[in-house]
Structures are given as C-alpha cells and as structure tokens.
Amino acid sequence: IVKAFELVPAVERDLLMGDKARINIECIECCGKHLYVGTNDCFIHHFLLAEVASSKGKPGYLAQKLLHKYLGLKKPVAELRAASALERLIVLCEGLVFLVDMVTLETVPSAGGGGAKIRGVASFCVNENPVNADPFCVEMGVLSSKRRTVQIYMVYEDRVQLVKELTTPEQPCAVSLDGYFLCLALTTQYMILNYNTGASQDLFPYNSEERTPIVKRIGREEFLLAAPGGLGMFANAEGVSQRAPVRWSESVIGAAVCFPYVVALDESFITIHSMLDQQLKQTLSFRDGHILQNFEGKVILASTKAVYVLVPLPLERQIQDLLANHRVEEALILTEGAQRNIPKDKFQNLHKRILQQAGFIQFGQLQFLEAKEHFRKGQLDVRELISLCPLLLPASSSFTRCHPPLHEFADLNHLAQGDQEKVLRCKKFLISYLGEVRSTEVVNGCREDVDTALLKLYAEQDHDSLLDLLASDNACVLADSVPWLEKYHKYFALGLLYHYNGQDSAALQLWIRVADGELQDPTRSDLFEYIVDFLCTSSNVDLVWKYADWALRKDPIVGVHIFTKRHTSKDQPELNPDDVITYLGKHNQALLLYLENLVLEKRVQKEKFHTHLAVLYLERVLSLMSQSPKDEEQLTKARERLQALLRESDLYRVQFLLELLLERATLHGKLEEHDKALHILVHQLRDFPSAEAFCIWASSSRDSAYRQQLFHLLLGVYLDGSPPGQSGDSGELEMAAVDLLNRHGEVFDAVRVLRMLPEGWSLQLLRPFLGRAIRASMHACRTSRIALGLAHSENLQLLHDRLKECKRPVFVSEKKGCHLCHNTFSEPSVVCLPGGVPVHTHCVAQRVRDSPTKRQLTNSSKHT
To answer: Measured in whole angstroms, how far is the alpha carbon of residue 755 from the centre of its chain?
Structure first.
C-alpha cells in the first residue's frame, strides 16, 4: 500500500448550510481558487479556497464564503460548469441550461432578452479540447431528456447557438466530449461518435438501469468508463483500449484520473489504483460520498453535507516510501510514469537517483544482475559502491558519500549482518562490476580510486585478473597498493606495478628475492625465465649488466638468453658483442652458447668470433678425450660440432686448429691436400665412414670428374694397404674397398678400377659394382649412337636449307636489324636462317654453341 493522497476538508458543513439540516450538496465546480456548490434548495454558493499548511507541514484548505444566490426554481441544481474565459457558469436545473455570472451569480439575459437558455436537457458536458479557434466561445455537448439526440452548442457570453444535432440508436444518459469525438453511455452500451463525420464505434455493453454509467475524459481523445464486472476501462477515440483496465468496486459511483492514479468512489470508500501497473495502491474510508471530480489536477469530493480535497502527496515522497518498503519495481514504474508531469532536467536527476537507490536495495538482497542494471542506467558513481568495503579507496581519495544517502548500509558487514558468505558474494559482484565499468565514461575523474580498489579486491580474493590489470594501462596508486600486495604475498604482481611506474630496479630486486626462495609467491613457477625475458627486453642497459651475472650463475643456459635473444630497436639499444664476450669470460658455458649464436645463427662474419668458437670446440674435444673413462657419446657430439664449423666456415685461422687428427683431416681438405687427409682418416684413425664423408664433402661444390678423382684416390689408399711400420689388418682395408665400390660404383671409372684391382679378387664380391658398371657402359654407348644419328639428321637438314636459300637473294641494309640480337648490319657478311631471315654470323655461332644438337628457330616451318 502506498500513501498517494491525503483527504483534506475544504468546506465544512456549518459554513455551507449553518443550521439548515435538509440542505444537501448536489453538484460542485472549481475554477482556480473559486469553488461553486449547487444545492438541493436551488442555491449556488461561491467560496474562495486558499491552500494552507499545518504546523506539522501537512496540506490544508481554508474556505471563505463570498456569496450565495437563489436561482428562483424549485428543483435542485443538477450540474455546474465554469467558462472562465466568458466569466460565466453554465447551470443545469429543472432540465434547463442557462448562464450565470461567475461573480454576481446573476442569471445572464440574452442579447434579445429572455435569457440564454436550452430546454429539455438531461445532461451536458464542456469540450476541453475545442475545435473552434474562438477563445471567447465554449463548445458544449447536450443530451436531450425526451429525444434520442446529442446536440452540439456554441456558448457565448450572452447566447447559445446550436451547431449540430445527431441521433443515437438508444437514449443517451451520460456524455463526455473531446474534439469531434463524443463518448456516450446509452441505455445498454457505450459508444464513440464523431459528430463531424457521423462515424460511430460501439465499445462494450453496459446496463445503465442497474448501475450509473461513468464517462470521463482523462486526456486527449481518451476516456475512462465504468465497465461490467467492476472494471474501469480505458478507450481512445478509435475505440481501442491502450491501457490495461483497473479493478474497482462493483458499486462505484464516481471516478477521476490524477496521473498516474485512477481514483474511484463508492458508497463507503475511496480506492486509488495505479494506471501503470493496475494495482490497488491506497484505500480511504469515505461515507455518504456521491461526487468525485478532477478540476485541472485538483481532485474534489463531496458528501451530501461537506466538500473535501484529495491532495496528492509529492511523487518523490511516494517513491521514497516504496523504496523504504523495498518495492523497487513499483517505485521505478511510478518514477517513469511520472515523467510527463516533471520538468525534463528534474526528472533525469530524480530518475537517476531512484535507479541508484533501487540498485542498492537489490544489491542488499543479493540480486546482483538487477542491481548492476540499475547502477548502469542510473550512472552510479562507483565509489558509492566501493565505499561499502573499508580501506578499498586510496588514502588520497577525496570522495564522500552522497547526501541524502542512497542506502542505509554502513559497510558490507552491516549489509550481510556478519554473514561472511554474503560478504564474499558481494565482493565478487563488486569485482565483476568494477571490471566492466573501469574502461567506460562512468569512471571519468575517479580512475585511480577504481583501479586501486580493484587491485585490492583482486589481491584479497586471489583473482586471476590481478596480473591482467597490472600488465595493462592502469591508474593504481602505488603508495596504497604496495602494502596491500605485500600483505597477500603478491610479490610478482607488485613487481609488475613497480615496472609500470618506472621502477624496474625495485621490480627486479623483488622478483630475485622470490626466485631465490627468500620470499614466497607461487604466482609464476617460471619466474626465473620471466626475469631473463624481462632483462632481454629491457631498454636500461645498466640494469642488464647489473642483474645478468645473477641469472648466469643461477642457470647459464637460460641466463645467456639475455644476450642471445635481445633484439635491436630504437627503444632497445644494441649490446656490443665484444663487451658481452668479455662479460661472459667467467661463464664458460654461457660464452660458448653466445658465440654459437653469433656465428651459427646470426651469421656474424668476423674472424675473431669464428676462431674463438673453434678454439672453444677444440678445448671441449681435448677435455673429453682426456677424461677416463671417455664419454663416447659426448665426445662424438663435440667432434661433430667442431667438424661442422671447420667445414662451413672460411673465416677462422687454420694454423690455430691443427691439433687433432680428425679435425686436421678437415683442415687438409680445406687446403686441397686430400691425400694427407685420407691418410689420416684411413691409416691413423681407421674411420672409413668419415673417409667417404670427406670425399663427398670435399667434392660437393665441384664437377663429377673431381669427385671421381677423390674416390679413386680413396680406393688407391685402401688398396695400397697399411704403410710400413704401422700395424693394421690389410683384410679390413680390402673389405672397406669392396664396400666403397659397391656403395658408390656410379662415381668410378670401371675400366680404371678393373686395372687397379688385384688379380685374385672374387668377382662375386664385386657383383653389385660390376652390374652397375656394365649397365652404365651400355647406356653411354646407346646414348652416343642416338646423339650421332641426331647430328647426321641435323646436318642433312642444314644442307637442304642452304641449297634452298641459295636460289633467292637476301636483302641486307643498314636499316635492317638482326633477328637474334636486333642490332643493325654493318657489313654484307650475314647468315640466312630458314625463311630468308638474315642474322649476324657471330650471333649464329653463339646460338650454335649454346645448343649444339638442337636449335629452335622462329620461322613458321619450325625447321632446325
């Protein structure tokens, strides 16, 4: 229930009738502060109503009687209507309509004498939306008491004029007029009638003999009607109801609209329903009431003996009462419905505040989705919400809560009454809401407060988004955030905050303490790698030199990434490689990795880096060879790295590196001393696969004849056997020779090999080699025959073309160009191509050299 109105006495019984007990009020009219009362003894009483306020601030009225006048008739005054522009009262008494002066209450005579009167009238109404533009003329609808007609009159200061008369299907008993539209209550139904066009629209049935019909104009082309079943129905000029009906008493005798409420009167009560949600909002006891009218927003009631005013309470007070009772939806409906009655600026401010209050009510009820929507629409200053959590706002914040307050909560503990689960749910909502609004216009001017509060909530709740907040653009207040992050052991996050505020050294010192186990923070298990990446991308070179030593001592393989993964840009200065190599002097493993990065990955073409890397590789091989027992796998890998460098690089100084046999063989290969290299590989190392690999590597960029020469050289080394004074199994060398021939037979000259092989070797051993050699020889023979035949054919064709061309002249001039090189001729000696095309002799010679067996010419006959 809402207290929307207060019932205030306006004219007391004693003031109206004194000691005359039989006088009853029959009708009333109010025009501004002037109240007119018609009584059953044919008097009109004129009162002046003044609004007054009681000592408690409640509204009230003080009535002053100005005049009363007897109309000279016998029956009660049935109806009164004021025409203020004419200073006239339109009076219905004894079926007669006539005009009375509003000041003197004297009957107005007509211009021709005898009074301005209309006879046989049952009821009438004034058009409050007139179609006539004359301001000193009143339009009036009149119901005949004897005929089924409706008449339209124009009322002037001293006369009335009939302008239209329409017939109705039944006897009309009530009427209301708006523009050209008449809303009529007939005997059995309601209808809408357009008196200009004559068009009509039946509405719904109603028995006027059982219940008094009610027809009230409530707005432009809209009417309120009493419908069967105790309903108050709305209908517009088109006969359509655009509002839901209200349910009032079956015995209602009067109704009025004071937006957004419908006021209805029955024998015992006044009921007040909302037009917005059709709910009953207030009930007032009122005995013996029989008149209820709305006069320009002032709702006046009358019993038979007194007059009362139904004073609406301020909408803001009604809304606050609803909010106080946590009736949020009703308060919002009432606020939005009252928009047309409140100035735009005032309404916007009121609406925002109501939305904010509604949001806090639903927040207190843990209805977070609804609360968020109301906060968003009401453009809530989010600090109102943040202030519910003590200490979230930074000490530098100047925020104070709104006055009057938007809610009744001191803080979240007060709201949740100590229930920590509720507190936690509220904080989770606050995190979500602040995260949504922090990048919107809502936080303009208070970004520091919002981001700092969000950081504190993230840290307290161990929220994943803490790092995202600090890694992005933020306005967290450092002084307030540091102790909070330390309290919850969020040291990595604190380092990010230091970095965002330009304090990289403080960030690194903190992270190093965590990585060394001095402080506990499980946020990142890969914190050491993160520190290395941070130094790798840091633009502060001094910081890199300062903290790189710690990283290299902790893990040189990862730590060296500070230097190897560093990219050069205008914001990230380049480190001098010589300075880095000097710095890494005491970190051997890191130095090796750095030199590998320079030489093998970045391809830096400097002799000192290549030589330094080769020396380190050699030292590594020597170190592994001196160990006992030897780690063969590590030794093999070390040698492979050294050999790869020696083969691929041309920048190192060879004389520094002739220390080990395998590597020396590679160096001899670089000097094209292949016999010495193969001697080392075969006789000293007995490493036959390396010997074959050496031949392939040494001939990789040379022609096939060079490769054949190398393989014949290796075969000769195998067949020569072990040199004098050196122990070795000659059978092992012979098997290596057989394997070489069978694996690489296509490289060898078969005839030369057969001459080199000992007489006693079995052909079965050489079967794969011999089979491949015979096939290669036959293929070469057949290919040469084909080439010879093609050459013969080409020669015959050329002879034929020559004979044919000799029979006709060839024209050559300085203006004519060669078909092949497009230059002009400077001498008469030319070659004629098929088709009579002259070309230079040297161009043809070049063409023939380029394609000795086949020439494609551009003539139409395609001759070659």
So the answer is: 85
Residue 709 CB neighbours (<10 A): 17
Helix axis angle, 541-554 relative to 504-515, nearest 10°? 10
Rounded distance, CA 100 to CA 669, Å?
136
- Cα–Cα dist 99/161, whole Å: 13
User: pLDDT grade, residue 622 (50/70/90)?
Assistant: low
Q: What angle do CA 276, 29, 13 make, to 5 degrees?
A: 105
Radius of gyration of the chain (CA): 57
Q: Is 483 exposed, middle or buried (0-12, 13-18, 19+ CB in 10 A)?
A: exposed
Top pLDDT among 863 and 253 is at 253
CA 104 – CA 479 distance, rounded (Å): 82
Residue 447 CA to residue 383 CA, distance in Å, equals 10
**Bridge partners, residue 64, by sequence:** 48
Sign of the four-CA dihedral 567, 568, 569, 574: positive
> Cβ of 333: how many Cβ atoms within 10 Å?
19
**Number of CB atoms found within 10 A of residue 505's CB:** 15
Phi and psi at residue 117, in whole multiples of 5°? -135, 155
**Whole-number percent of the chain with pLDDT over 90:** 39
Q: Summarize pLDDT for 366-375 with one digit per residue, the tens.
A: 999 999 999 9
In the chain, the domains with their CATH numbers are 5-313 (2.130.10.10), 810-851 (no CATH)
Q: Is 174 helix (H, G, I), strand (E, B) or coil?
A: strand
Residue 473 Rama label (left phi>0; alpha psi -120 to 50; beta): beta
pLDDT digits (tens, 9 = 90+) for 660-687: 557 777 777 777 888 888 887 887 667 8
619's enclosing H/E stretch is helix 607-625
Q: Exposed, middle or buried by CB within 10 Å (0-12, 13-18, 19+), for 753? A: buried
- Count of alpha carbons within 13 Å of 523, Cβ hemisphere only? 26
- Band (pLDDT 50/70/90 cuts) for residue 863 is very low
The rounded distance, in Å, linking the Cα atoms of 61 and 564 is 93
Residue 658 pLDDT exceeds 70: no
Check whether 380 has a pLDDT greater than 50. Answer: yes
> What's the CA gap between 452 and 1, in Å, rounded?
44
Residue with the larger pLDDT of the pair 748 and 652? 748
189: nearest Cα among 177, 200, 209, 204: 204
What CA–CA distance (Å, rounded) separates 637 from 635? 5
Indicate the DSSP class of residue 151.
Answer: E
Q: What is the pLDDT of residues 788-799, one digit of tens each?
A: 999 999 999 988
Q: Which stretch of DSSP H or E encloses residue 818? A: none
Residues of the chain by 3-state class (helix, strand, coil), percent to 5: 40, 20, 35
223: closest CA among 253, 170, 189, 185? 185
Can you name the residues that pair with 47 across neighbouring β-strands?
35, 65
Contact yes or no for 514/527 (Cβ under 8 A): yes
> Residue 42 in contact with residue 70, Cβ under 8 Å?
yes
282/279 Cα distance (integer angstroms): 9
Amino acid in position 35: L
Query: Rounded distance, CA 310 to CA 308, Å?
Result: 7
Cα 89 to Cα 107: distance, rounded to the nearest angstrom: 9
* 858 pLDDT more than 50: no
CA 832 to mean position of chain CA atoms: 78
String of DSSP letters for 657-723: -TTSHHHHHHHHHHTT-HHHHHHIIIIIS--HHHHHHHHHHHTTTS-HHHHHHHHHHHHHHHHH-SP
- Residue of 668, 703, 670, 700 lying closest to 682 (CA atoms): 668
- Over residues 444-453, mean pLDDT: 91
Q: What value does the mean pLDDT take over residues 617-624?
A: 76
Q: What is the mean pLDDT of residues 378-388?
A: 92
Using CA atoms, how far apart are residues 385 and 375, in angstroms rounded to an integer? 10
Beta bridge partners, 222, equal 219, 236
pTM check: above 0.85:
no
